[in-house]
Q: What sequence folds into this?
């Protein structure tokens, strides 16, 4: 735990990190996704501050080619190998090198850069992000799986390589800023906020009948469907508590969450003298991205300014783990430790996909995840992970176990 | 401006500041007041961390003697010279040195110490606090007049002597923490919160008839009567904006305030990337005092813990400068600069005293202050101050001008 608390102030990798006046060499893994696009928006507004090294995408080949041309990237890599020809055609005459496939994504992450935005979504992001860590420079981390599934292994690798980890998630960026390099013994609590999602005020009966269409209507953020469902179950907050455990120098008991429907306050850090430092911002991922790129400096971001008097009121309520059992299940996995969070994450992906396909009821998402963790415990799959291969094999095993559990459920 | 932004991280003067494991030699100027007593409460809870050097009071001689015995202070000084005998009697056989008078207060401030808590209220605190600054160690500043009246001269002296200034006011401590040593060009705004006082929702007609008894009922804080009236007029927030201007590296346009009736959020700092860092705490001065004593570390304080879910809601509204003209008058004095804030402060003291004596109506407090500033401008008394003597003579002149204005008012 506490991987982020190192090298807060020397700013080795970020904006101007490689010498005054020089631009930051930046690689964007997952350039066509939401975080990637927001990153490139900031880069476009500060063209003299950045030099784009490599950009990658999984399958959006035309968008990737357009980004590579626009940013004058040196390298464009598409994850789907069948698209190499299309990428080559789209970039012919541009001078941009092209490559394709999973290994090429890893190679892209290894290109010399001052900062790597690790924004590939899901388990596919793990290997490229580990490769970026090996460089020992700044990692702006948007991929959740590196911490949720591979936390112990990943943070050990960050330390070994002397890399600098800056979280891009809004809650963890908020915690990072509110911690400001404080000593671990000064911190009493880190409280992440949760919007409560679209079902915050729903009864158990209503939740039992909730449909994917209803769950996909998030009140504050526009995100991918997996994350939006996680936000409706509060699993998202559970996963974020696991991430926070690995990022910050506090134990499980010092981590908590509070429901805050306006999504303006993103995290609160309590200190032992009674002080609480909080970070607030209108919901716009360009703020945490700008923090990660420029820290310990600040760069301008074209976001809406917070106007508290116009907002009027910020409200808070305790999360309800009865109506939102995913939060309880995730906390239990965090306490269990070892590979329990990896199993939780894999089982949740299977459960959410099944819910979106209407093969699983909303409240059964957490039930399926809990049953999968129990099943994994029984077969001895909850154990310390020594390396990335351990994590990847547990992830695969957990998906199989979850699919077995899923077969027992009737479609709702 | 910006006196506090220096030496944020080296922590030369505070807790453990004079070497690992050694205690902090602490002098408390104004030991019998509210801030002094809260300071000594924290000291009593951490006896191994502090060594009390000198304690002072203006006239509460028995309380001072009791404090000196309890803390095993080396020196006790009473401001009122007529009380020297009483102090000597009360401390006979204790081994505590005693002294009395204004010069003795200044001498007490010069005693070698790692940290001086400058908590003498009013203009009487100016000379002793300047004397403490000369030592070039940490000043925990609770006295407002050093910054409001003597800001330019005081901050120049802080720089010249290499002293370290830590604000003890809850709003400025909050700003200090939310700034965390940020570069000036990263900061977009510093917003202090105001409770709005007991008359927050009152109409102009009600305000015109407000009595001292009504004004003294502050909703959140228990403070002296002068500060409580300033809180009812919002002059307090105006004075704090002037202090903030001298403490932090921002210009007048970057300073503002917002009404927040719960007094939980004390200050918000907006950065150019859209991030806003805020400090929150239940109203208890031991929190900002602990911050000032221990920074950059944190010390435990026995304060109520913030529970946002129980609190439920934090509300914000724009301050109304029509119903609370003192805020407008103070902002104008800040913009005018030079000795205008010193005149503002002196005139306000006269006006508040007259209001408490029922010689002036509530809404006439700001009017009298504004008229005094205008009168001072006319006689050329708004001018640059070169030294402390300039400030003290302007302060005296402003009090005379305010008294002249006051004579024209009928008692309400």
A:
């Amino acid at each position: 735990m506490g991987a982020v608390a190192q090298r807060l102030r020397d700013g080795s990798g970020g904006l101007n990190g490689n010498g005054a006046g020089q631009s930051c060499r930046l690689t964007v893994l997952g350039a066509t996704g939401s975080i990637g696009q927001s990153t490139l928006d900031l880069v476009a507004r500060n063209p003299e501050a950045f030099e784009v090294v490599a950009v990658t995408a999984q399958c959006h080949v035309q968008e990737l080619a357009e980004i590579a041309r626009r940013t004058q990237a040196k390298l464009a890599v598409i994850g789907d190998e069948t698209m190499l020809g299309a990428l080559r055609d789209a970039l012919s005459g541009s001078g941009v090198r092209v490559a394709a496939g999973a290994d090429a994504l890893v190679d892209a992450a290894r290109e010399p850069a001052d900062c790597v935005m690790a924004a590939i979504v899901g388990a596919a992001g793990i290997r490229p992000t580990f490769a970026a860590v090996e460089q020992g420079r700044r990692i702006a981390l948007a991929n959740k799986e590196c911490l949720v599934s591979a936390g112990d292994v990943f943070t050990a690798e960050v330390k070994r390589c002397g890399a600098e980890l800056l979280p891009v998630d809004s809650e963890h960026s908020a915690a990072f800023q509110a911690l400001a390099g404080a000593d671990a013994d000064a911190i009493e609590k880190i409280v992440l906020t949760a919007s409560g999602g679209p079902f915050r005020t729903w009864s158990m009966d209503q939740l039992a009948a909730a449909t994917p269409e209803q769950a996909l209507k998030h009140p504050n953020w526009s995100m991918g469907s997996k994350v939006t469902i996680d936000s409706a179950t509060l699993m998202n907050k559970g996963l974020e508590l696991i991430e926070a455990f690995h990022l910050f120098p506090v134990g499980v008991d010092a981590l908590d969450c509070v429901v805050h429907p306006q999504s303006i306050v993103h995290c609160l850090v309590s200190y032992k003298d009674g002080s609480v430092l909080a970070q607030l911002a209108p919901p716009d991922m360009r703020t945490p991205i700008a923090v990660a790129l420029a820290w310990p400096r600040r760069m301008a971001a074209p976001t809406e300014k917070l106007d508290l008097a116009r907002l009027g009121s910020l409200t808070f309520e305790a999360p309800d783990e009865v109506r939102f059992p995913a939060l309880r299940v995730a906390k239990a996995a965090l306490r269990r430790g070892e590979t329990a969070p990896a199993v939780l994450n894999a089982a949740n992906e299977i459960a959410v996909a099944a819910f979106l396909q209407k093969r699983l009821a909303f409240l059964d998402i957490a039930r399926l995840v809990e049953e999968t963790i129990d099943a994994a415990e029984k077969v001895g799959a909850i154990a310390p992970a020594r390396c990335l291969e351990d994590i990847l094999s547990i992830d695969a095993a957990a998906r199989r176990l979850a699919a077995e559990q899923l077969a027992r459920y009737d479609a709702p």
About this structure: Confidence is low (pLDDT under 50) at residues 5-13, 16-20 of chain B. DSSP finds 18 helices and twelve strands in chain B. Residues 388-407 of chain B form the longest helix (20 residues).
